[in-house]
Amino acid sequence: MSPAKSPAGRVTLRDLARTLGVSVATVSNAYNRPDQLSPELRERVLQVARELGYAGPDPLARSLRRGRSGVIGVVYDAPLDYAFADPAAAIFLGSLAQVIQQDALNLLLLACAQDALPVRGAGVDGFVVYCAAEGSELLDAVLERGLPTVLVDQQAQPRAARVGIDDVGGARAAAAHLEALGHRHIGVLCLELGPDPRSGEVNADREAQLAYHTTAERLRGYRLGAPEAELYLAETEQNTREGGEAQAAALLRAHPEITALLCMSDVLAQGALRAAAALALNVPGDLSVVGYDDLPGSAALDLTTVWQPTADKGEEVGRALLALLAGEAAADLSLPTRLSVRGSAGPARTAERAD
Questions:
Q1: Is 77 helix (H, G, I), strand (E, B) or coil?
Q2: pLDDT (tens digit per residue) in 133-150
Q3: Cα–Cα distance for residue pair 101/350, rounded to 1 Å
Q4: What is the pTM assigned to this prediction?
Q5: Residue 97 and residue 92: Cα distance in Å, rounded?
Q6: Distance between terminal CA atoms of the chain?
Q7: Pairing of strands 149-152, 161-165
């Protein structure tokens, strides 16, 4: 059986209908509305399709006809492997997926570390912005699409819903805990400050480029919580244990007066604990370490940290997006945080550590 093929050389739905001697609607129903055909006719259509090498209706064309792609784009300005390497990101994405898949939606990860082109060309029904610098081309590109959009831990925007956490409150509680323990020289391991990632101590010029909402809010909370302490800032290019270890070690060598480290993630705190061990510093006798996130496994490390509802945040983002897709309103939401006090933070040492 050899039908006349389309000009592109690929067997089309119309070619299959002509070969079978049936209408195009009949072939379409075999794939999309099988209840409209007898089992015998449907099986005949599918059998001839297999023989001719017809792969089925074009999903892109079908989505264009319906006006929906069934795909949600998750946007972040980091390398693709970040979504798999960062435990908090993995928990968030898993919870988000559980909610939206109830409406037969799928996730498309859009890692836009270099430019906004993937966002402008993405065939999606809506966006979740997981991480983007404020005022960036990437964030502007998302908002310009005019699709249902939920911002995660970002500043509120008039054309999008927002789901975040009380970053300031959690950071303030962590810093206040250290100040109450007598710490007056505190290092801060920061997440990225600006869209051009770098590592090292943060000077005034670099801090003036602060463009990430989460970093800004946590830093503000630290300063509010420990107004009597001097803070020494170091930026990590990526949220990794290796980055946390390297910057913690460099900060402690440059400023031996530091008695505690505030880390903007538990991953960075894990690196700080490694650095302390490599420098033969007892935790918390010589150095207190406080994280942020309260990831699974942090309790086993006896890590004092700020708990945030990462899984709940993913679920709330999913619910907000489904509401927007249904044409309903989605109110901005801020979820609570709390300090989980464990054994990695103790009273400041009374004697200064030698160089």
A1: coil
A2: 998 889 999 999 999 999
A3: 55
A4: 0.82
A5: 9
A6: 85
A7: parallel
